[in-house]
Amino acid sequence: MYAATAREKPMTVPALADAKRDGRKLVMLTCYDAGFARVMDAAGIDLVLVGDSLGMVVQGHGSTLPVTVDDIAYHTACVARGLSRALLIADLPFQSDASAEIALQASTRFLRAGAAMVKLEGAGHKLDTIRHLVEREIPVCAHLGLTPQSVLRLGGYKVQGRGEDAAEKLCADARAVERAGASLLVLECVPSSLAAAVSEEVSIPTIGIGAGPSCDGQVLVLHDLLGVDSGHRRPKFVKDFLREGGSLAGAMQAFAAAVRDGSFPAAEHSYE
Ligand code: KIV
Prior knowledge:
GO terms for molecular function: 3-methyl-2-oxobutanoate hydroxymethyltransferase activity; magnesium ion binding; methyltransferase activity. Keywords: Cytoplasm, Magnesium, Metal-binding, Methyltransferase, Pantothenate biosynthesis, Transferase. By secondary structure, the chain is an alpha/beta fold. It has a single domain (about 1-270), classed as Phosphoenolpyruvate-binding domains (TIM Barrel, Alpha-Beta Barrel), CATH 3.20.20. It is about 40% helix and about 15% strand. The protein has an eight-stranded parallel β-barrel with strand order 1-2-3-4-5-6-7-8, surrounded by seven helices. Strand 1, helix 2 (about 35-40) and strand 2 (about 45-50) form a beta-alpha-beta unit. The longest helix is centred in the middle third of the chain and has 17 residues, at about 165-180. It is globular and about 45 Å long. The site of 3-methyl-2-oxobutanoic acid has 10 residues, from loops.
């Protein structure tokens, strides 16, 4: 089992590229408060995301759309107080990245609250925003595949990138976000073979959620890791690690170990 020690160096943005180069899997969880953040840090979680999933798992909404910049800034400040090693990423909520300039304002608040990187969904016009942020010293994590802020257009939370055209578009978007300056790429709900191809093609680390075992790291929503019923249908890629870990810290350590030894996600958590 992994146990973080006080001597361990904090995760940095350049260390992400080192991990991919050295073939070390990155372990990421979502988090919304300082108490859980402390346990994650001690369990050796590399990346902690204040996700806009907080709209669904903390606030009880049916989607992430109601989440505001104030919400993410508040939870980012809470989580930052609990971390000493993990790299903290804050999600740009719905429409806070509608233009490069408003994304810069929101991102600046998140970095002042303790984040080291911001995450945004999509490519297209968001490529200008990624460039705008990166040129202004704000590291960016991109997010492709199932982008929950597009739920109305997509008509639900569905696997993306199936079929040749959709797969090619996703590969092209992945190359484009890398060129725009993103340092990390979340791939959500895409076939394993496509996620493997993207991970091979881009030099930035990919972090999968429902994207099979070949990504450079994995992320789960905290409530899913702990088997908490958040009132929504449990997706196939979710595994209750509390059952095998036996405690909060044990669940996080079991998740980290399974990601690092490649046993999670298994075929039953992945899409073809
Ligand atoms: O908001 C979130 O929690 C996320 C993860 C599922 C990657 O975007």
